[in-house]
Design goal:
The protein has about 675 residues and is of the alpha/beta class. It has 3 domains: about 1-115, Chitobiase, domain 2; about 125-410, Glycosyl hydrolase family 115 (TIM Barrel); about 455-620. It has 21 helices and 15 strands. It has helices at about 20-35, 75-90, 130-135, 145-155, 170, 175-180, 195-200, 210-225, 255-280, 290-295, 365-380, 395-405, 415-425, 430-440, 455-470, 490-520, 520-555, 560-585, 600-620, 625-635, 655-664, and strands at about 1-5, 10-15, 45-50, 60, 65-70, 105-110, 110-115, 125, 160-165, 185, 230-235, 285-290, 305-310, 340-345, 385-390. Strand 4 and strand 5 (about 65-70) form a beta hairpin. Helix 11 (about 365-380) runs parallel beside helix 12 (about 395-405), helix 14 runs antiparallel to helix 16 and helix 16 packs antiparallel against helix 17 (about 520-555). The longest helix is centred in the C-terminal third of the chain and has 36 residues, at about 520-555. The protein is globular, with a radius of gyration of 28 Å. It starts with a strand and ends with a helix.
Length: about 675
């Protein structure tokens, strides 16, 4: 007995919940994309409740029809997506990686039974944090479609939980996430997903002791607004951003760790009481993140056993506390076996204004991810995983790796690169090699295994140095003390040494990707160029720009202003080249995907470098701006003739740079 699956297959469901209806429509869309017209009967897919099946589980029985049994919405959703992937070949990141769907007339499926796999993690999902690229990008003119595709990818990965954006986005996207069947949870700085106090009351200082009832009202309103959703309630009390509450509290009454911990503990208990007033059997979590982790470890925060304690990696995939400014103690944030319900907040994308990755991949190996997440599972950290996925597209390789881990699989660079390229790059060995070697090409800025540089290492530090040069300040730059010591010139020299030491590896990787690209054709070449090769270009061009920039600063110190001016211009051009390469990867529906790159903001690094050119010109040229102009434009015998001061309009810095480059 077998089942014939084709465009005429009927889906019979009496289950009228929004998540199941949405999943049925996804499968119908996939059938339209995968099947050609035929007159052959396609049989029937029938959905039936079976309360004996585990939560989120399913059984698919295949005979002369397909019967799907599940006990809840997500069970049916996962079963329908399983059929889409297993028989139509549609992969979790089909949309984000431009998968070409193979066409069929009919597919004959042998009799059999499929039982759902058991995940290693109970609540598993993504945090759409720092999602600035998604904010302004649209699909067919519709930004909502972007979020539908993002949440669908999460469901296809077996995820069941989401923080559906940062700040305002999280509230805008809650309804869509719920309609697709996802649990909702919250940013680690937003108690119960409530509105930020300073937005609700912009003219009132956020001092808890003076405004208790206002805080309580915000929290209660948030619970009532979300009472119809499946929610993992985030318990916390932090500041009016990703910072400690005492940074914005002006009362001065929380001047010891004991007082701070006591207030946070009491408010978490209050938040639990508010939730229980409206929600039966609620699920709670709290993020032991930043200052909360330190207070908890010292015993100043008291938490009930039923609260999931969520610890975070450092933003680079290592389960230690994150670096904040120049403070980097690297205390273990690994869950501890036997300590009750535990989970993690893990990053494949991070924004720290220092060295992290946002528009490029995690700069560390799949093996490191496997080892860290494997240790999390071994230490009972299996209740809750929320993964910072930011804008999805640049990070699909590592999101796919984490997907395998929350299903309990072991992974490594070799196997994962081969499986991933088999799914999305036609099994191309060159693409697999490029993905495998990526982390090994990244610049190492510290002694620890995870201290490899994302693109922010290039863009942020250059802008800090340029800003201070423009302001005429050359003392120690506190913002760079985490990476370099001394005055501005000494810090720049140390930055240059780090970049120069790693630049040859980036150059070799860039060359490798170029060689692989030249051997590809058509859609496969475009996909490789727009997802892997482009990241090698961003790293190589930006790192080259930093090296040139640092050389320009050295020439400023030596008083060689004309050479410094030219080098600064060369650096800006190299940043422009990186930005242009990124924007050229926006083919088809991806047009303008990177337009709102406002975090790494490669184009702004070029802008700041050009602003520094203006400062250098003022230091080296004369007040009338005719000396460098004469040197560059006039014939040798005319340079010292001043019957007429100038013969042309005064040149902009860019115009002068271009003329000077031509005469070198």
């Amino acid at each position: 007995m077998s089942f014939t699956f084709n465009i005429n297959t009927r889906i019979n469901s009496q289950i009228n919940t929004a998540p199941v209806i949405n999943a049925v429509n996804i499968l119908k869309r996939d059938m339209e994309n995968a099947f050609t017209p035929t007159n052959t009967d396609g049989g029937e897919i029938v959905l039936t409740y079976d309360k004996t099946i585990d939560e989120e589980g399913y059984i698919i029985k295949i005979g002369n029809r397909i019967e799907i049994y599940a006990s809840d919405d997500l069970g049916f959703v996962y079963a329908l997506l399983c059929i889409s992937e297993k028989y139509l070949g549609i992969k979790p990141f089909w949309f984000w990686l431009d998968q070409k769907i193979e066409k069929h007339n009919s597919i004959v499926i042998d009799e059999g039974e499929i039982k759902s796999p058991v995940p290693a993690v109970r609540y598993r999902g993504w945090f759409f944090n720092d999602e600035v690229l998604l904010n302004k990008w649209t699909v067919e003119g519709d930004n909502c479609k972007v979020w539908e595709m993002a949440f669908e990818a999460l469901l296809r990965c077996g995820g069941n939980t989401v923080i559906p954006g940062t700040d305002k986005n999280s509230r805008i996207n809650r309804e869509l996430a719920d309609k697709m069947g996802l649990w909702i949870t919250h940013h680690h700085a937003e108690p119960l997903g409530a509105e930020m106090f300073s937005r609700a009351y912009p003219n009132i200082a956020p001092n808890f002791l003076e405004c208790e009832e206002l805080f309580y009202k915000l929290w209660e309103d948030a619970v009532k607004e979300q009472s119809g959703y499946k929610v993992i309630w985030n318990l916390c009390f932090r500041g009016q951003g990703d910072n400690p509450f005492w940074n914005s509290d002006t009362s001065g009454k929380f001047d010891t760790e004991e007082k701070r911990g006591a207030l946070i503990s009491s408010l978490i208990r209050k938040q639990c009481d508010i939730v229980r007033k409206y929600i039966k059997n609620p699920v709670f979590c709290t993020n032991l993140y930043g200052e909360i982790m330190e207070l908890y470890d010292k015993g100043y925060i008291d938490l009930d056993d039923d609260i999931i304690k969520v610890k975070a990696d450092n933003g680079y995939g290592k389960m230690v506390t994150r670096r904040r400014d120049n403070h980097d103690v690297r205390v273990s944030s690994m869950p501890v076996k036997g300590r009750g319900r535990q989970g993690i907040y893990y990053h494949v994308s991070f924004y720290d204004l220092q060295a992290a990755n946002h528009i490029t991949m995690l700069p560390n190996s799949v093996e490191l991810v496997n080892n860290e997440l494997g240790a999390v599972l071994n230490n009972d950290g299996n209740d809750f995983w929320i993964i910072n996925c930011s804008n999805v597209k640049p990070h699909t390789y590592y999101l796919d790796a984490v997907r395998k881990k929350w299903w309990g699989m072991d992974i490594n660079d070799e196997s994962h690169s081969e499986e991933y390229t088999r799914d999305y790059y036609g099994g191309d060995a060159g693409a697999a090699r490029a993905l495998r070697e990526y982390p090994h090409a990244m610049i190492q800025y510290g002694n620890n295994e995870d201290e490899h540089a994302g693109e922010q290492f290039y863009t942020e530090n250059v802008r800090i140095i340029a800003h201070n040069i423009i302001r005429g300040e050359s003392g120690n730059l506190r913002a760079l003390n985490w990476i370099a010591k001394g005055d501005l010139y000494e810090q720049t020299e140390q930055l240059n040494a780090i970049v120069s030491n790693g630049l040859s590896g980036l150059r070799e990787y860039f060359t490798l990707c170029g060689m692989i690209s030249s051997g590809l054709e058509g859609d496969l070449k475009n996909l490789f160029d727009d997802t892997v090769f482009v990241q090698s270009k961003i790293h190589f061009y930006c790192a080259s720009a930093v090296q040139i920039f640092c050389n320009a600063v050295a020439e400023i110190k030596n008083g060689n202003y004309k050479q410094a001016f030219l080098l600064a211009g060369d650096s800006a051009v190299m940043f422009d080249t990186a930005n242009a390469a990124m924007r050229l990867s926006e083919r088809g529906i991806w047009k303008d995907f990177y337009e709102n790159d406002c975090f790494a903001d490669i184009k702004h690094s070029a802008y700041m470098t050009r602003k520094m050119m203006g400062t250098i010109r003022e230091l080296g040229d004369n007040a009338r701006h005719d000396k460098w102009y004469r040197d560059a434009v006039y014939a040798e015998e005319d340079k010292n003739i001043y019957l007429q001061l100038v013969l042309d309009n005064h040149m902009t810095d860019d115009e002068l740079y271009n003329v000077m480059k031509e005469t070198i």
